[in-house]
Amino acid sequence: CGSGTLLIEAARKALQIAPNLNRERFACQRWPDHDRLVWNETVAAAKARRINNLVVPIFGSDQDPAAIRAAKANADAAGVAEFIQFEQRR
């Protein structure tokens, strides 16, 4: 599983979490013609699409215990740790 990137992306996609949904600022928000109302509606719609459970579990394994620790930490930081099962295997 390495650092867990593919597993994390799979979980976020399956949960319908839009990319950078938890990010606070984007460059486009400083554009002169930025429409704050449309932006806020779009973000709200993206948040409403998120689901909170998976039909199929996501599993990842690695032979290196340090890789498992890193992948778990990365999944936690991405907010999807509870949806991925990591295991050390050869």
Distance between the termini: 12 Å
Tell me, what's the shape? elongated
> What is the C-alpha radius of gyration, as a whole number of Å?
16 Å
SSE ordering: HHEHE
Describe this structure in words.
It is a single chain. This protein is 41% helix and 11% strand. The longest helix is centred in the middle third of the chain and has 14 residues, at 36-49. The model has no long low-confidence stretch (mean pLDDT 94). The chain has three helices and two strands. A two-stranded parallel sheet has the order 1-2. The chain has 90 residues and is an alpha+beta fold. The relative contact order is 0.27. Helix 3 (65-77) links the parallel strand 1 (58-62) and strand 2.
What's a concise summary of this model?
This protein is α+β, with helices and mostly antiparallel strands and 90 residues long. It has helices at residues 5-14, 36-49, 65-77, and strands at 58-62, 84-88. Strands 1-2 form a two-stranded parallel ribbon.
What's the structural blueprint in terms of helices and strands?
Elements: H1 5-14, H2 36-49, E1 58-62, H3 65-77, E2 84-88
Parallel strand pairs: 1-2
Features:
two-stranded parallel ribbon, 2 strands, 41% helix, 90 residues
